[in-house]
Amino acid sequence: MWIIKTLVIVSHPEIDNSQTQQFLKKGAEDAQVIWHHVESLDEIDVGKEQKLLRQADRIVFQFPLYWYAAPYGLKKWEDEVLTRNFIYGDKTYPLEDKEFGIVVTTGMPLKDFQKGATENITLDEAMAPYRAIANLGKMKIMPLFSVPQFWYMSEDEQMQLLIDYQRYLSQKFPDSLANREEWFEDRLQQFVKELSDEDQFSGNLILDTFIQNKENLEQVNDTLKMIKEGEDE
Amino acid sequence: MWIIKTLVIVSHPEIDNSQTQQFLKKGAEDAQVIWHHVESLDEIDVGKEQKLLRQADRIVFQFPLYWYAAPYGLKKWEDEVLTRNFIYGDKTYPLEDKEFGIVVTTGMPLKDFQKGATENITLDEAMAPYRAIANLGKMKIMPLFSVPQFWYMSEDEQMQLLIDYQRYLSQKFPDSLANREEWFEDRLQQFVKELSDEDQFSGNLILDTFIQNKENLEQVNDTLKMIKEGEDE
Question: The Flavodoxin-like fold domain covers which part of the protein (chains A, B) (predicted)?
């Protein structure tokens, strides 16, 4: 089993009062990532922060959208921690090839973030400055993960969000079918291992069924590919 | 003579050490605008700041580009001063129809701010979050004023910058020939007024010549327009 070392840099000025952040925090615990809340730091120790960044495979900025950007706490962290040499100076690139993601929560629905709609800017456009840093540091840029209007979500939608969020933190990217399957199989194996002895039997049955289904699906995919190639000739 | 009340919200963590900001500050004094440095505020008094904003005709954000955005001091100011209701809540728009500008200084040349170049983002793209606020508040958005690599500028270039900056702060927009002329004429009149008695005569000669030239130019423009209209028929 592969493990991606993910560092989540979270910015929220009142994180204890944020239902959304508390919900995501639980998901992050299950995914075994480092959850690093910048406003909780007494003082920003540049060396310590840079070391954390160096040790990570995937770095995720997570925050609520305040005036089309992160709260100022994250900008303060950026201004102090991200020294020129740490991103691109001296032709060394300490963050090169690490993955960079953004988890942004919004109070407005996604449909408002378009040209011509209320916000008149897409979330992708608003996040461009963060991606420009990652680009300068030669990082691999992941698609944005947005969480619009968490408090309107049904319980089912919240569960779906939790899984998607955990995949965003710990699944291999790109988000292909094969990578999803691998991720689910790993999680299932982990889950079965933690069952009591008497439940092990049924747990293993479920796991076997999942693996069998996965293999069947791969065969179907291969067959489809062959048919497609036949048609192309 | 019209006067535009311009409020310059300046953000720079070490403004006394910034040659560029000190240079621009002098220009702002001549243009008689309110120069408001956010990092110098002991504490942000929301009511006081909002009152300043309400009294202005033109609001300009001015800062050096740190990681494709303003220093965190401006974001802190935004997060605290720009309450929802002050921008767009309750269907009132306190900043409606005021002009919004951005003066951004950069350490890199403008040619680096393009897709495919080092920075891989345009300055316009990086500034999109600020304009989105102005857009939400129904403000009129002015084109960006960028000051790349001030310290490489020759004395002539600095003088040109100073005039352009003063025009950005106090000239009517759009930046048309007529508005430029009006601005220069006002400045010249002001200048002549302040001359000693013995210099008044030559000062007024210069002013008369300027006005005469302006009128001649307007006549030429009218003639050109007539010729153009004749061609269109």
Answer: 5-154
DSSP H or E segment with residue A76: helix A72-81
The phi and psi torsions of B62 (rounded to 5 degrees) equal: -135, 130
User: Residue A61: CA atoms inside 13 Å, Cβ hemisphere, count?
Assistant: 24
Alpha carbon distance B179, B165 (integer Å): 15
Helix axis angle, A197-232 relative to A177-193, nearest 10°? Answer: 170
User: One-letter amino acid identity for A185?
Assistant: E
Comparing A78-82, B85-89, B217-221, the range with the smallest average pLDDT is B217-221
Contact status of B186 with chain A (Cβ, < 8 Å): no
Confidence category of residue A101, pLDDT binned at 50, 70, 90: very high
Which tokens go with A21? 């952040």
Q: Which residues pair with B189 in a beta bridge?
A: none
Collapse the DSSP code of B41 into the 3-class scheme (helix H, G, I; strand E, B; otherwise coil) and give the result.
Answer: coil
- pLDDT score recorded for residue B129: 98
Are the beta carbons of A11 and A69 closer than 8 angstroms?
A: no
Tokens of B199: 């210099």
E strands, A95-202, in order: 99-106, 140-141, 145-148
pLDDT of residue A216: 87
Say which residue the tokens 């996604």 belong to. Answer: A110
Backbone angles phi, psi at A127, to 5 degrees: -90, 0
* Residue matched to tokens 């153009």: B228
ipTM exceeds 0.85, yes or no: yes
Cα separation, A41 vs A53, whole angstroms? 15
Q: Please indicate if any CB of chain B lies within 8 Å of the CB of A83.
A: no
pLDDT of A107 reads: 95
Chain A interface mutation, best of B9, B14, B39, B68, highest count of A Cβ atoms under 10 Å: B68
